[in-house]
Known about the structure:
CATH topology of the domain at 187-357: DHBP synthase
CATH class of the domain at 187-357: Alpha Beta
CATH architecture of the domain at 187-357: Alpha-Beta Complex
Radius of gyration: 27 Å
Mean pLDDT: 94
Amino acid sequence: xxxxxxxxxxxxxxxxxxxxxxxxxxxxxxxxxxxxxxxxxxxxxxxxxxxxxxxxxxxxxxxxxxxxxxxxxxxxxxxxxxxxxxxxxxxxxxxxxxxxxxxxxxxxxxxxxxxxxxxxxxxxxxxxxxxxxxxxxxxxxxxxxxxxxxxxxxxxxxxxxxxxxxxxxxxxxxxxxxxxxxxxxxxxxxxxxxxxxxxxxxxxxxxxxxxxxxxxxxxxxxxxxxxxxxxxxxxxxxxxxxxxxxxxxxxxxxxxxxxxxxxxxxxxxxxxxxxxxxxxxxxxxxxxxxxxxxxxxxxxxxxxxxxxxxxxxxxxxxxxxxxxxxxxxxxxxxxxxxxxxxxxxxxxxxxxxxxxxxxxxxxxxxxxxxxxxxxxxxxxxxxxxxxxxxxxxxxxxxxxxxxxxxxxxxxxxxxxxxxxxxxxxxxxxxxxxxxxxxxxxxxxxxxxxxxxxxxxxxxxxxxxxxxxxxxxxxxxxxxxxxxxxxxxxxxxxxxxxxxxxxxxxxxxxxxxxxxxxxxxxxxxxxxxxxxxxxxxxxxxxxxxxxxxxxxxxxxxxxxxxxxxxxxxxxxxxxxxxxxxxxxxxxxxxxxxxxxxxxxxxxxxxxxxxxxxxxxxxxxxxxxxxxxxxxxxxxxxxxxxxxxxxxxxxxxxxxxxxxxxxxxxxxxxxxxxxxxxxxxxxxxxxxxxxxxxxxxxxxxxxxxxxxxxxxxxxxxxxxxxxxxxxxxxxxxxxxxxxxxxxxxxxxxxxxxxxxxxxxxx
Length: 760
């Protein structure tokens, strides 16, 4: 008995070889009918026996092309038409566009085989790609996603490439970036002043220059990298000097897993991440002995490592280097350079030469960063390879634009039951980053064919993202408290809608009481929250200066614990007497010393007290080095601490902890043991707080969110203790726990506010 069904498929199903995949599976199953793209995704009409149709539907869902993902598949029976075969029809344009653009991705195994095959027409061609791999989001200029709406429009296909593009049986059927050496982009080597290098072999000359210790700017998928030989200590040191990046770790790239194993340990989970289509930077524990320069990741037990993801990377690394430093092409705190002229101007004085090409990058996208936490991947920066892939929301909602926070900014757009979190934008205080933020919003709106109905922003009125939102006077706005957004972000990615306890620990966030929050015990859902407790307030002498100079927080903490008679420890001897006196006056009189409950600032204070870090060169450095200092393979005894009920608040008071910690400093206890005890005490405190709050509220779901939970030791030990006490623990996986994931939380909270009529 013949039947006919209509199948509506939505998700990332355009520009990824989905129609030829459907075509091949239909022929293999004996199905008649057709398939075409429209503004929503892919529409299929399939005719055959019930057994054939069941087999066909199963294949559509379980044999997807590598870059495809299905978010919705709906089918309905329709009258039989009597088609005699299966065809691919021309695309149709509809009023509403909901089809999704694929992220940029790595070069696939089939293309790699061709790249290194001397008999193949694309042998050693640095821009080889097919429907299963290559640039996507970074080259899209508009929709629909066809070649004229990409930066490949400048390269008309030769007859051979056009024939592949038109052939449903070809791996390059409708591969929009399709090209070959005769018709596609070409490499070029430029000298430091931007003029052409005299070499006629750009790739070979670039490799020679890298081996000689030169610094090269290399154009990738989403922007320029600055590259040096990672085993050349002098070259790494010079890169740090020129880039004005004193100590923040550099990322590494090696050609394969065997090369990486020479200098880093790789678990099965990390191996899977490294080899995934997204090709993120993965944080790996360093081996004890290796040839990588110690200046790549000073005072750090981890390397950030990635595998090659473009054909050019593979050609550079083919036989020549154990690893290349591949750090973002910028000066510290600036956005990554991605336009050729801008790169030559901004990287002048940093790069000795430029290995570039004439395929334009339309949207800059930094590399993504992931680490394994409690056995699961945790994104620390979500960008290339992941964006603009949608994130499923717990419920459908209106079109919300959420503009994120000030640091590690991302923005988010919601449509129905999907959220589209942007690429990593950066720190908005930089003018170029803010311009990139505005351009990114405009571009993502364009390719989603989307308009906001409400704007969500952080409660802090001075954030540039908040000011941007409030300037859009034609739209209602929703101000979202920073830590509530962290809580909602983690809940949303887990599809959780019921109230949760939230342990939200970060650096700074504006609180509803006007103080700076950052060590918060919350109870909340996707609409509202209640503050049940927090870390004891501490003055931040100098405000933002205290985040750059952790010794300020150490003095504040010591003053609170000891009063006028501070203990004799090395840190205090290092501070000039006039500065020490000034800081004490600021603290005592409350002059430019806002109060904070920040867990991040407590980490800073302890790092300074132990002599690890009194000033920082990048955000989170003190806390990171405190984690790195933990002595391995030791059982740590808890420090004493106090949890006290202060009116309706449960307050964590670290006075006893700090007093015991300072006593150990005075007795010469190693920093590794002190750091371990501090971390394990915080993990125990988290479990203690949650146990007390469960007795008070009856809720056993706990969210761990905020930048502090990038700390693997703390997060894993807190999870273990909570799970042992029968808590359901939610941690981040799809979006970062830091402010890079904040916009998702803002968006879902604002969506609920619209439903409740609370948007203004």
